[in-house]
Amino acid sequence: MRDTPAPIAALLESPALNLGGRVLLTLPFWSSGIAKLLDINGALAEAAHFGLEPAWATVIATLIVQLGGSAALIVGRFAWVGAGALGVFTALATLIAHPFWNVADPMLRFHERNTFLEHVGLVGGLILAAILTHRKGRH
Hints:
Elements: H1 6-12, H2 15-38, H3 40-49, H4 55-75, H5 79-97, H6 106-138
Helix pairs in contact: 2-3, 2-4, 3-4, 4-5, 5-6
């Protein structure tokens, strides 16, 4: 016996909602990739700020992951690769950019911890997207 009302079940089975969810889940990545393409100097400065050298290689790799991973997940082809690349990227970037455990100021530490946990939640969403895309492909 299903506990989901029929109209909600129909909505959850909707290809449009599925696509919309994948577009929204990847929004932070593809929008960041586009912004980096439009401001390469800013992207290079950001990489250098975090000590990621050579900055140009970091930016190229970041663009490939952000744009390519997003496209794979949105289109649903090799979605597991896209979700996996975005998940690993997010985990590494979060460790580098939001080490809340090193922040002395309590308010700043609180905000950095929240950002860190939001990013961990995003990794969980990417895992679920890979699972659901894989399951959908088997039917």
